[in-house]
């Protein structure tokens, strides 16, 4: 019996030799091939401005230092609010932050650090245009038509308060201009760019297409929300719809991702709000006109 076992063993060895099989029946890693020991990401550090992108690469080597060809790599980012990373290692930046990008192969990881700076503010001027003209002037038939909207009247008295908020609306990467004359009854428009007068003004209104909301109540102490402005305009604002544009809505307030009902955002002086429908892009930063 022992002789037969030895004969079988010699037969298997002979078969392996004849077939040219390497490590036939060895105790090495199952499946054969190279196994990742190190992952190196290049460039290891990058500085960008929000809105820019960079293509990272990952080199995977085995325990002997040999580069593994065509390895399977999974990419991830430590802060997906600030950056996104594709399956091929392309990093798109969204917000000012310092983010760690990780490439993983075979359970082994390597990292790179991407530092993102805020973009230079874009100047605005009264009567200007920010975005593509899409909407007609003034409030819609569903919005402010003279009667109070959400307890906000159309008033003619002196302002008790006066401050400004900027709103950007971006749909699948294209910025749309908010209309002029929202909340201004019977607006007098000069050069199709600036509403200079009207029979009355709602406490929330816009004079031009810059996206600047004028907050001018005749009674002090009122708290205003973004939802109230959209009601004066007469357009919907939800987590899936902005002024008739349907899709996933991403909201930024002063360069920070906002999670919650966008209608509930409380308006504040020199606040910058970005509403993005569909594709996420870096929210723009604007500089208010002098004396605003």
Give the topology.
Elements lengths: L1 H18 L18 E5 L2 E5 L3 E3 L1 E5 L12 E4 L5 E3 L4 E4 L3 E9 L2 E10 L4 E2 L8 E2 L20 E2 L7 E9 L2 E4 L6 E2 L2 E3 L3 E4 L2 E3 L1 E2 L6 E4 L10 H8 L7 E2 L2 E2 L2 E5 L2 E3 L12 E7 L8 E2 L5
Task: Characterise the protein shown here.
- Helix content is 9%, strand content 36%.
- The radius of gyration is 30 Å and the shape is elongated.
- The strands form eight sheets. Strands 11, 13, 14, 19, 20, 23, 24 and 25 form an eight-stranded mixed beta sheet that branches.
- It starts with a helix and ends in a 5-residue tail after the last strand.
- It is mainly beta and 292 residues long.
- The chain folds into two domains: 33-117, Sandwich (Immunoglobulin-like); 122-287, no CATH class.
- The protein contains two helices and 26 strands.
Strand content: 35-45%
Number of strands: 26
As residue ranges, the low-confidence spans are 1-32
Query: In this structure, how is the largest beta sheet organized?
Result: 8 strands, mixed
The backbone outline, from C-alpha atoms, is elongated
User: How many separate structural domains?
Assistant: 2
Question: Which structural class fits the helix and strand makeup?
Answer: mainly beta
Number of helices: 2
- In which range does the helix fraction lie? under 10%
What is the succession of H and E elements? HEEEEEEEEEEEEEEEEEEEEHEEEEEE
Radius of gyration: 30 Å
**Average pLDDT metric:** 90
Terminal CA distance:
100 Å
């Amino acid at each position: 019996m022992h002789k037969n076992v030895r004969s079988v063993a010699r037969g298997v060895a002979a078969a392996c030799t004849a077939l040219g099989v390497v490590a036939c029946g060895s105790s090495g890693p199952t499946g054969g091939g190279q196994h990742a020991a190190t992952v190196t990401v290049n460039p290891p550090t990058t500085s960008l401005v929000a809105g820019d992108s960079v293509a990272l690469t990952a080199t995977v080597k085995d325990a002997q230092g040999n580069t593994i060809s065509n390895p399977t790599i999974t990419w991830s980012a430590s802060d997906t609010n600030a950056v996104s990373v594709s399956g091929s290692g392309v990093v798109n930046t969204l917000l000012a932050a310092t983010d760690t990008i990780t490439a993983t192969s075979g359970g082994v990881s390597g990292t790179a650090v991407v530092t993102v700076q805020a973009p230079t503010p874009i100047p605005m001027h009264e009567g200007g245009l920010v975005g593509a003209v899409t909407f007609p002037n003034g409030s819609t038939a569903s919005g402010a038509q003279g009667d109070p909207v959400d307890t906000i009247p159309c008033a003619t008295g002196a302002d008790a308060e006066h401050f400004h908020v900027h709103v950007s609306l971006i749909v699948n990467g294209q910025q749309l201009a908010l209309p002029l004359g929202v909340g201004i009854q019977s607006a007098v428009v000069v050069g199709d760019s600036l509403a200079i007068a009207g029979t009355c003004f709602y406490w929330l209104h816009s004079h031009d297409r810059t996206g600047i909301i004028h907050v001018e109540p005749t009674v002090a102490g009122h708290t205003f929300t973004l939802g109230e402005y959209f009601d004066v305009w007469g357009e919907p604002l939800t987590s899936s719809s902005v002024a008739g544009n349907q899709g996933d809505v991403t909201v930024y307030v002063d360069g920070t991702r906002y999670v919650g009902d966008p209608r509930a955002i409380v308006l504040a002086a020199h606040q910058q709000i970005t509403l993005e429908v569909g594709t996420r892009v870096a929210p723009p930063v604007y500089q208010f006109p002098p004396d605003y």
